[in-house]
Design brief:
nine-stranded mixed β-sheet, 45% strand, globular, mainly beta, ten-stranded mixed β-sheet, 19 strands
């Protein structure tokens, strides 16, 4: 009968030791909670939380370059939807720190963020790109995005500014996407070992969009051209917008009002 099992199941049984019987989550009723809150501005939507639990009881078996057996903590990932709080712009989810079960799961990290709700406002067939993401690690393990991020004491409050970034690419096939240009990488990463409250407030400056057009031919000297909200065009080899320039343009425009 084992030979007839799908390969994915065989891998699962082989990779989790000590809890093949029941590796499901079963948070105890009295488990301490972590609350994740996202303040969602107009034009954006809250993305689904990707929540990871880990277990030192249910090991994950892998092998090194020379074939040696390596035991790692097992992991269990689930998706959680943020729930709108009344008619406000706050969306919230409560996560149990203890996942319980036979594997004695513990909360390891969460990935969440915001995205454009209606990308087609920037044109037909425009899709959402990237940006506006957050990774929070609650233990000593690296996140699926790599590393543990900036260390934070106590609860975590994040307030970041973003600008619409509309990109047109041609190499490898045409696409047009709108992303969120902010300070730093696509995902902001933090390690918050003591946090019980995680609050994220993205501030979107919709009227200060930046546009970029990729060269149609890969050739020395060809660079992506960025058109900033003030009309200036820059093609200096950058792969993403100059956030400081965007800030300066917006602040100068607002000071004239």
């Amino acid at each position: 009968m084992i030979k007839k099992l799908p390969l994915a199941l065989l891998i699962l049984f082989a990779s989790l030791s000590g809890c093949a019987k029941d590796y499901s989550l079963a948070p105890p009723p009295d488990s301490e909670q972590i609350t994740v809150t996202v303040k969602v501005p107009k034009d954006l939507v809250a993305e689904t939380l990707q929540v990871m639990y880990r277990s030192a009881t249910c090991k994950r078996i892998t092998h090194g370059a020379s074939g040696q057996r390596i035991e790692l903590e097992g992991y269990h990932s689930i998706d959680v939807q943020l729930q709108r709080q009344g008619q406000s712009d706050l969306y919230q989810a409560n996560l149990a720190m203890s996942g319980g079960g036979a594997c004695q799961w513990h909360l390891s990290n969460v990935i969440f963020g915001v995205a454009y709700g209606n990308p087609t406002r920037f044109g037909e067939n425009v899709s959402y790109g990237a940006g506006g993401g957050v990774v929070v690690v609650f233990d000593q393990n690296n996140s699926p995005r790599g590393g543990t991020g900036i260390e934070v004491d106590g609860d975590l409050t994040i307030r970041k500014e973003y600008y619409p970034w509309v990109t047109e690419t041609f190499l490898g096939g045409y696409s047009k996407r709108v992303s969120l240009a902010g300070e730093g990488n696509i995902y902001l990463s933090y390690q918050a070992l003591q946090a019980r409250q995680v609050y994220f407030e993205p501030v979107l400056h919709s009227e200060f969009a930046v546009y970029s057009v990729q060269p149609k031919e890969k050739k020395k000297g060809n660079h992506t051209a960025f058109t900033y909200p003030d009309g200036s065009v820059v093609a200096d080899g950058r792969s993403d917008p100059d956030f400081r320039k965007l800030q300066a343009i917006r602040l100068a425009a607002e000071s004239k009002k």
